[in-house]
Design goal:
Blueprint (H helix, E strand, L loop, with lengths): L2 H12 L3 H8 L3 H9 L6 H19 L11 E5 L5 E5 L9 H11 L6 E3 L6 E3 L3 H8 L1 H4 L3 H10 L3 H7 L1 E6 L14 E13 L6 E15 L5 E16 L1
Parallel strand pairs: 2-6, 4-8
Antiparallel strand pairs: 1-2, 3-4, 5-6, 6-7, 7-8
């Protein structure tokens, strides 16, 4: 990609006019005009720094915040083997009937419009309006049984953290006509892991954690952005003491 195309693409990411872009990032208008026209070439480090600040501002503007009523008891821990694990300490959802999944879909709607960064790759993953419906109503979800079904229901509370710890991306070409635009550049499957608590007869008696592995499905859309599509292939890995 030519340097002037990179500058145009970066400005397009912000959604700003050339004048507003220059004001936002304190660059003379004439300079950006010359860059985009290919008349002057900025140093490569300037392009990299500009991309970094645009990404940083996007993350800051879209950071997910929770009210007290939406408080999540979720954290990321690192195991002895170096693997990251999302610890979800509240089992908010039963996930066993249609009403439960409607509630989950409504809950997931609060993520729409947000974006989060994958620590391993520095990729930004956006959450669009198709995610809550796919997560709650896909054929894959309907086919889940027992503990795995409940696990997916409660995994909904740890979406930002699961994006953060996602590893080992595997790319595959899009083969479905219905996704020829929203997954024009294919699909990525990342490995994610999370754990849920198991309590005894006393609600305060934490016995152990059940650890689950899953695949995070991300579509690479026509606009060049990556969007979270679903959490798939949830399977219990092991049990760990509290």
């Amino acid at each position: 990609m030519e340097f002037n195309e990179k500058i145009v693409n970066l400005r397009n990411e912000t959604g700003l006019s050339r004048k507003d872009f220059c004001h936002q990032y304190d660059i003379p208008l004439r300079t950006v005009e010359d860059w985009e026209a290919g008349k002057r070439k900025p140093p490569e480090y300037v392009i990299r720094m500009l991309a970094y600040y645009i990404r940083l501002k996007r993350i800051y503007d879209n950071s997910f915040t929770f009210t007290d009523t939406d408080y999540r008891n979720v954290s990321v821990i690192e195991e002895e083997n170096g693997k990251k694990l999302v610890l979800i300490n509240d089992k908010r959802f039963k996930g066993m009937d249609k009403k439960d999944w409607k509630d989950i879909e409504v809950y997931l709607a609060q993520y729409v419009g947000k974006c989060y960064e994958i620590a391993e790759t520095s990729d930004i993953v956006y959450i669009d309006r198709d995610f809550p419906d796919e997560f709650a109503n896909s054929k894959e979800r309907i086919g889940l049984k027992g503990a795995n079904r409940k696990a997916k229901a409660n995994a909904s509370q740890g979406i930002p953290e699961m994006i953060q710890i996602a590893v080992n991306p595997k790319w595959e070409q899009n083969k479905e006509d219905k996704h020829k635009k929203d997954a024009k550049f294919g699909w990525y499957r990342y490995t994610v892991r999370f754990a849920l608590p198991v309590y005894g007869n006393n609600p305060e008696e934490l016995i152990r954690y059940n650890v689950f592995g899953a695949k995070m499905l991300v579509r690479h859309a026509e606009d060049g952005k990556k969007y979270l599509y679903d959490i798939l292939a949830i399977k219990k890995e092991n049990e760990q003491p509290a």
